[in-house]
Structures are given as structure tokens and as C-alpha cells.
Write a sequence for this structure.
């Protein structure tokens, strides 16, 4: 009897039967539960299917271009649909540079705004400012574009760019003729569009810092600055970075407003005053007019590239966030009882 | 603001060393303390002297104002919008709410331990203990090292963590985390230690450890211990104040208050006649 090893199925059977009879008596709740389970699984699958379908469609459309140009598509800088030359490098360059500049401008501004609001401003200011910020985040892209085209670009042309050129003209980024519409104008409008989003996220993140941590710092005689440095920033650092990357994701795919001010010229210039082009802009500009098979296929590949870039950026963000484990996935704390054994 | 009878200069000291029990009978002298949250009063005129180098227990049912009382003693209400404090609180003769008083310096003299242990999650054990000194501007490595060991020994944690001082503070068990927070508060050598239900989230063994720690520390520190656990006050406090609905009902030696209370309400509470 002692060395008897019970057959798992033998033991599982009566237990399962018992469980079933129990669940039967629960009745309607159980049915609803199951129904919800199916629904959730179905929704999950359909999202995946949609993503797969999108990827497949893009790939199908781009197949010809991929076969014909290979890697050359990504490293060539000649884009001339009439001559049948398709190199996407200027768009990649424009997308990365405009997004990077936008993030460089928007991220510090957003975090500073959020910090001043949560750490320094009176509490009663928080709600109205947050509402305003969220409102700004909801302004449609094309409205930002209109404003940028009629207000920002003339100001850049007449005032800001000449000023920059006078004092920083020795840098290659601020040389050449000034048109107003430019890579820098595109970057600025993206910066303005992602600032409210990143600010709003940063405020939420900062508000998520447990009061007990702030209190710990206060009780040790920390000043407001020190509370921020000691209790708040270390705790939220990785999630703030995550907010920034979300902003970057938005910047990479930003289309309408950028198209209206970036100049739409598929060339690579070192000067930020020169016109540029982005992946999203060329799609929106040329898709309707693309007549030849190869042009259309190249545009599909542009779309595929844009999806890939966004995907890579988002994955990097996730990795970054996971690299600091205590916030998003708290380490399991040891239980009280373990102390007694130690 | 200070009475002429007690020269504030004599009693003012920025560190705990050289505390002289003969000349200072009270750490805190509290007169007619009111605290409001918005227009609701949480404390209605508390007058109480916290004796030096003893453990003073504050007991009373949940919501009676224990935390509110403790937080008035290190000016923590200043972070709560709508909170208002009125009355006079003197720490060794010095009015802590005086306009010239610096709440930052006050909080270095009056340490606080909270209900839920709250080590800084990004910091190691060592960094947690030393953060108060770092904030106070201490850069001397020898001094930091000395205080690290001193504080951890006082918190009865040294032997358990001395081999992993660089491990994250949140990897410790709940009871150890609370002792880490006690060490963090002690590292700056405060004159008074406020403890707001420090054991209420701990299991019996961790609770016993911290209670014995409080008794030991009570020899050298003035401790104010808020607790809703009567036995805890009975085991650790030298004298005890009973609060009810924002009022001080009775204050006296723990023994007297527990065995022979002078107020009917105290007796009712001790015998569990109301919650
Ligand atoms: N931040 C706050 N805002 C408003 N009311 C508060 C706040 N803190 C405490 N109170 C009120 O003050 C009273 C005393 O609370 P508290 O001091 O926390 O009681 P205890 O610590 O004895 O349980 C309670 O009625 C509580 O609702
Ligand atoms: Mg309390």
C-alpha cells in the first residue's frame, strides 16, 4: 500500500465529476462566465487576425517592390516615380530626424510642465490645467497643420530662422536658404502636437507615486526639490521614458500637419532649414496619383516600413520599461512568515 | 513666543546628544491644539506634555485623531490642502509653528515612522538608511559608515542585513522593512520619534520584535506611539493618552490608566464597551 503510486487519471476522474456537479448548481453565473470567456478569446483572436491581415496585405502590395529593389529600397536616396526609381532613404531620414527633434523638444518640456504642476503648483490648479492639456491633445492634426502653415511658418521664415542663422549659422544645420517650410518646421509642429499627450501621461504617472513615499521624504526633512529627486523621479523614471516613447510613436506616424509644413522634397539635406519628407507624408501625397504598378508597390513598401519602424520603437520601449522591474512588475515581497525562519 | 520661565536658547539643541533629563521634563509641550480639515475639526483643543526619554502611547479608536495629532508634531499637515493647525506646540521650549521656524529642520529633529513601511523602492538598504543624512548635507564617508551601523544596530536589523547592505530595501520582509524605516529615521539622530501604528501591518512575531525595539529605544529617545492596539500600548508605553473623537480624555502613567482609569469613557473603551 505504501509504495502505491496513484494513477493521475484515476484520481482526477472522480474529482472532475464532483466539480462538474458543483458548477452545475451554480447555473446562470457559470454560463455567463463561459460566455464572457468565449467573447474575450474571440476579441483577442480577432485583434491578432486584424494585425496579421494588415501585415499580409501590406506585404502583398509591396512584394513586387521588395523583389525588384531588395535592400536598395531602404538605402537609395533617389525617389523619382516618373523615371521609375524608388529609394526610400530620404523619407526614413526625414521621419527619424523630425521625430527625434520633436521628441528632444517635447519631452523635457512635457516632463517639466508635469513636474511643476504636480510638485510645485497649488493642488487646485491641477484639474483645470490637466483639462486644458487634454483638450490640446484632442485638437485634430489638420487644425495644427493649418495653424502652422499660416502662423508658424511665416514667423519662422521672417524671424526665428534668420535669428538662428545669425547666431548658429556656423553649424551645418542652420545654413542655406530659408523658405520657412522645412524639416525643422515639421519637427516643431510634431513637437507641439505630442507635448500635450506626453504631458498628460507624465502628470498621470507622477500622480501615481504613492503618497507614503512622498511622506517618507518629507518626514526626513526633504525640500520640495529633494522630494522630487529622492522619492518621485527614481520611482517614475522608467514610466516617464515609456511616455516619451509613446510620444515618439505618435511622432513617427504623424501625417497631416507635417505634410503641410515640411516641404515635401525627397532629398537629404544636412540643413534643417531645407525641405524634407517623411514616410507618412509621401504616402498621403502620392497614393491617389500613383498610376504605375511599381509606384504603387513602392508606396506599399513605404507603408510596410512605417509599420516596422513603429513596431521596433514600441518594442524597444517595452524592453526599456521592463528593464526597471520595481514599477511595472513589482518584485514579489517576501512574506512575513519567512522572517521567522531566518 | 516662549514663556520667560523657560529660556528657549537653553533648551534648543539640533541633535539628540546631551539630552539632559533633569532639566527637560517635557519634549513636547502642547497647548490647546486644534486641527481642521476644511471646516471639519479633527482635534478639539488638546493640551498635553510629552515626557522626555519615555514612550508615550496614544490610544483610541480609529478616526479619533491619533495620526492627526502626530502629524501636527512635525508639521506634516502642511502638505494637505485645507488642513489648518492652531494652538501652541513647543519642542524643548521652542515654538515649532513660529513664523521663523523651519519645518525642514524640525523634521530632522522629529523623526517619523509610518503605519505602512515605506522604504524608497529604488534604493539599497544602505542608501535608505543614509538618505536623511545625505539630505542634511553629510558627505563625510567615515561618519556615514558609522551612522549606518549605529542606526541599523539601534533598529535591531544590523545582524540581519550587514552582509547585503547593497540589496534593495524592498527585498526585505515586512517586519524588516519597518525596522529599516526606523533605522532611516534614527540615522539623523532625532530628538523625538513619532510612530504611527508601526506594527498594525505586521504579523505577531514581527510585532513583538518591533515592540521590544520601541521599549529599548524609549530609554534614549522620546517616543510618541500611536496605536489602536491596547495591548501594544500596555506592553510598550510608559504613559498613555486616551483620545476620543478628537479630544484628550485622559492622560497618565500607563499602569494607572489601564488599571484605574479616572474617566468613565476610558474605562468603557478599555473594557471594550464601545468600538
Ligand atoms: N487628509 C484628511 N482630510 C480630511 N479629513 C481627514 C484627513 N486626515 C484625517 N481626517 C479626519 O480626521 C479625523 C481623525 O483622523 P486620524 O487622525 O487619521 O485618526 P486615527 O489616526 O486616530 O485613526 C477623522 O475623522 C478623519 O476622517
Ligand atoms: Mg491613523
Amino acid at each position: 500500500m505504501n509504495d502505491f503510486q496513484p494513477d493521475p487519471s484515476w484520481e482526477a476522474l472522480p474529482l472532475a465529476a464532483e466539480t462538474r456537479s458543483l458548477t452545475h448548481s451554480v447555473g446562470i453565473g457559470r454560463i455567463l462566465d463561459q460566455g464572457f470567456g468565449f467573447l474575450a478569446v474571440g476579441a483577442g483572436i480577432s485583434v491578432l487576425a486584424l494585425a496579421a491581415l494588415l501585415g499580409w496585405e501590406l506585404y502583398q502590395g509591396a512584394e513586387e517592390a521588395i523583389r525588384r529593389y531588395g535592400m536598395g529600397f531602404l538605402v537609395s536616396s533617389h525617389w523619382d516615380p516618373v523615371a521609375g526609381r524608388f529609394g526610400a532613404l530620404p523619407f526614413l531620414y526625414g521621419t527619424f530626424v523630425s521625430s527625434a527633434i520633436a521628441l528632444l523638444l517635447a519631452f523635457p518640456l512635457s516632463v517639466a510642465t508635469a513636474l511643476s504642476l504636480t510638485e510645485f503648483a497649488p493642488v487646485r490648479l491641477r484639474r483645470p490645467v490637466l483639462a486644458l492639456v487634454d483638450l490640446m491633445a484632442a485638437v485634430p492634426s489638420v487644425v495644427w497643420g493649418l495653424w502652422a502653415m499660416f502662423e508658424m511658418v511665416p514667423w519662422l521664415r521672417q524671424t526665428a530662422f534668420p535669428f538662428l542663422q545669425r547666431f548658429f549659422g556656423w553649424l551645418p544645420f542652420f545654413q542655406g536658404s530659408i523658405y520657412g517650410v522645412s524639416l525643422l518646421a515639421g519637427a516643431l509642429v510634431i513637437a507641439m502636437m505630442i507635448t500635450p499627450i506626453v504631458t498628460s501621461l507624465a502628470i498621470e504617472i507622477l500622480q501615481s507615486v504613492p503618497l507614503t513615499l512622498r511622506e517618507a521624504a518629507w518626514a526626513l526633512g526633504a525640500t520640495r526639490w529633494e522630494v522630487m529627486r529622492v522619492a518621485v523621479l527614481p520611482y517614475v523614471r522608467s514610466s516617464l521614458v515609456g511616455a516619451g516613447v509613446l510620444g515618439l510613436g505618435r511622432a513617427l506616424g504623424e501625417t497631416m500637419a507635417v505634410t503641410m509644413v515640411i516641404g515635401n522634397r525627397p532629398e537629404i539635406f544636412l540643413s534643417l532649414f531645407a525641405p524634407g519628407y517623411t514616410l507618412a507624408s509621401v504616402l498621403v501625397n502620392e497614393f491617389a496619383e500613383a498610376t504605375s504598378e511599381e509606384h504603387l508597390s513602392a508606396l506599399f513598401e513605404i507603408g510596410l516600413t512605417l509599420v516596422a519602424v513603429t513596431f521596433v520603437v514600441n518594442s524597444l520601449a517595452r524592453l526599456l520599461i521592463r528593464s526597471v522591474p520595481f514599477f511595472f512588475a513589482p518584485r514579489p515581497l517576501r512574506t512575513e512568515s519567512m522572517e521567522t525562519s531566518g | 513666543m516662549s514663556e520667560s520661565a523657560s529660556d528657549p536658547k537653553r533648551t534648543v539643541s539640533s541633535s539628540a546628544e546631551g539630552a539632559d533629563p533633569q532639566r527637560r521634563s517635557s519634549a513636547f509641550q502642547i497647548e490647546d491644539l486644534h486641527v481642521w480639515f476644511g471646516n471639519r475639526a479633527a482635534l478639539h483643543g488638546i493640551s498635553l506634555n510629552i515626557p522626555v526619554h519615555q514612550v508615550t502611547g496614544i490610544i483610541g479608536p480609529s478616526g479619533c485623531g491619533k495620526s492627526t495629532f502626530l502629524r501636527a508634531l512635525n508639521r506634516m499637515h502642511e502638505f494637505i490642502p485645507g488642513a489648518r493647525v492652531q494652538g501652541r506646540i513647543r519642542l524643548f521650549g521652542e515654538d515649532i509653528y513660529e513664523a521663523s521656524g523651519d519645518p525642514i529642520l524640525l523634521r530632522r529633529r522629529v523623526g517619523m515612522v509610518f503605519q505602512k513601511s515605506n522604504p524608497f523602492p529604488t534604493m539599497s538598504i544602505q542608501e535608505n538608511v543614509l538618505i536623511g543624512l545625505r539630505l542634511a548635507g553629510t558627505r563625510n564617508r567615515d561618519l556615514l559608515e558609522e551612522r549606518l551601523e549605529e542606526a541599523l544596530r539601534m533598529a535591531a536589523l544590523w545582524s540581519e542585513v550587514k552582509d547585503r547592505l547593497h540589496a534593495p530595501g524592498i527585498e526585505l520582509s515586512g517586519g524588516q522593512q519597518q525596522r529599516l524605516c526606523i533605522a532611516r529615521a534614527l540615522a539623523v539622530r532625532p530628538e523625538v520619534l513619532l510612530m504611527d501604528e508601526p506594527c498594525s501591518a505586521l504579523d505577531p512575531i514581527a510585532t513583538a520584535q518591533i515592540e521590544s525595539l520601541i521599549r529599548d529605544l524609549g530609554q534614549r529617545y522620546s517616543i510618541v506611539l500611536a496605536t489602536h492596539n491596547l495591548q501594544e500600548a500596555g506592553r510598550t508605553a510608559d504613559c498613555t493618552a486616551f483620545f476620543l473623537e478628537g479630544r484628550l480624555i485622559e492622560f497618565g502613567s500607563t499602569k494607572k490608566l489601564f488599571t484605574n482609569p479616572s474617566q468613565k469613557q476610558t474605562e468603557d473603551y478599555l473594557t471594550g464597551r464601545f468600538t
User: Anything to note?
Assistant: Residues 215 and 260 of chain A are 49 Å apart (CA to CA).
